[in-house]
Design brief:
The structure is a single chain. It is built from nine helices and 15 strands. The protein is an alpha/beta fold. Strands 7, 8, 9, 10, 11, 12, 13, 14 and 15 form a nine-stranded mixed β-sheet that branches. Strands 3-2-1-4-5-6 form a six-stranded parallel β-sheet, sandwiched between helices. A hairpin with a 5-residue loop joins strand 9 and strand 10. The radius of gyration is 21 Å and the shape is globular. It starts with 13 loop residues before the first strand and ends in a 9-residue tail after the last helix. The protein binds nicotinamide-adenine-dinucleotide. The site of nicotinamide-adenine-dinucleotide (NAD) has 25 residues, from helix 1.
Length: 355
């Protein structure tokens, strides 16, 4: 396949910590596509590490993290894919100066994110966070079109997700104090930031559902505040159990001269998914023609995961100064998430009932 993201000519070996669902479904398929060598894997559940290593032909399964730490050469990438709550403890064990790609979220809240950032600075890691939606082929294409000025000045980004998400697949979420924004909408917050930079503020409300009472929240509305001229809204509803007909899952960018709409098939009709779509409309000679479709090679899962790993490798090798998805950048995504929860807790403007 043709990759529209920069990848290293000589990829470093990868050592994986955590052999869970996302490593199986996305990391390893992506690395196979990109030709990134995976040399070792460790999980506290050895059976999971064994099974995944057998399926993807990983050279070595380690029974102890210490052994993997000892045997890995300095020019490697540590690919950490454990639940957010245990992330700091794992990072603490990695060698100073290491190249690290950690799964999102960067800790369970902004306090933890700041501690992780501090740890990364102290240990002089080249560290990135796996906000891979930035590198999904349809996002890369949209970014290129926007940078080329095809749709004029960006005025609006809308993310709309109405699907049925099988949260039961992620047992650790049942104990997590924060769920929807921290574990899902965070991707869209990060995506919006990657186009519009940091907002001045965030308004949000995130709610539970009677059928999933154990989960802290499963539906969110988030407004990222970019002032009076730009709108950035995220709507997610993971409890639409009424079949595929009215499920929705898209990112739409609108500009002064056109618009782009990317349909994210992976979230719909789970686990089968649907085809992605990519459509755009542009003004030509003062007039809008019809919407056009474009075929985009590759999807969010797994192709986007190539980009986030490539950034860490390129930075580790000195080919770029810092990963685009560096902890120094992503801390601002975590700050937006924190602001979203704070906004929800503060509540909306109270209505004066003395009318
Ligand atoms: N970027 C994405 O799109 C995306 C998607 C799904 C999950 N994730 C993130 O990836 C992380 C893992 O998610 P998952 O879906 O694979 O979960 P999972 O529950 O399937 O897997 C987690 C794995 O980590 C292992 N583990 C726990 N503590 C460990 C430790 N100290 N050392 C080694 N292994 C340990 C568990 O045994 C388990 O195998 C989460 O933080 C989640 O937010 C990211």
């Amino acid at each position: 396949m043709s990759l529209s993201v920069q990848i290293p000519d000589h990829p470093w070996p990868i050592y994986i910590i955590g052999a869970g669902g996302i490593v199986h479904d996305a990391h390893l398929p992506a690395y196979q596509l990109a030709g990134f060598p995976v040399k070792g894997i460790f999980d506290i559940d050895p059976a999971k590490a064994d099974a995944i290593a057998a399926k993807f032909g990983i050279e070595q399964v380690y029974a102890r993290l210490e052994d993997m730490l000892q045997q890995a050469p300095p020019q490697s990438v540590w690919d950490v894919a454990v639940p957010g709550a245990v992330l700091p403890a794992v990072l603490q064990q990695l060698p100073a100066g290491a190249a690290v790609l950690m799964q999102k979220p960067m800790g369970e809240n902004l306090v933890a994110a700041r501690q992780i950032l501090q740890l990364c600075r102290e240990k002089q890691f080249t560290a990135g966070v796996n906000f891979q939606l930035r590198y999904a082929p349809f996002v890369v294409e949209a970014r290129k079109m926007i940078e080329e000025g095809l749709i004029g000045t960006l005025t609006d980004i809308e993310v709309h997700v109405t699907v049925h998400t099988p949260w039961q697949l992620w047992k650790f979420l049942y104990e997590a104090p924060r769920v929807e924004i921290l574990y899902h909408s965070i991707h869209y917050i990060d995506l919006v930031r990657s186009f519009l930079g940091n907002p001045v503020g965030v308004y949000a409300k995130t709610v539970k559902h009677p059928a999933m009472k154990e989960l802290a929240s499963v539906r969110s509305t988030i407004i990222m505040d970019y002032g009076d001229m730009v709108r950035a809204n995220i709507f997610t509803n993971h409890t639409h159990v009424y079949g595929p007909r009215h499920q929705q899952s898209y990112v739409k960018w609108e500009g002064t001269k056109g618009a782009i709409k990317a349909g994210l098939g992976v979230l719909k009709n789970y686990p089968h998914g649907e085809q992605d779509t990519f459509e755009y409309i542009v003004q030509e000679q003062g007039k809008y023609g019809a919407w056009k479709s474009k075929h985009i090679e590759g999807s969010w899962f797994p192709h986007a995961f190539i980009g986030s790993m490539a950034q860490v490798m390129l930075a580790g090798q000195g080919k770029i100064d810092t990963p685009d998805n560096s902890v120094e950048d992503v801390i601002h995504t975590m700050a937006c998430v924190e602001a979203a929860y704070a906004s929800g807790e503060a509540g909306g403007t109270r209505i004066d009932r003395n009318n």
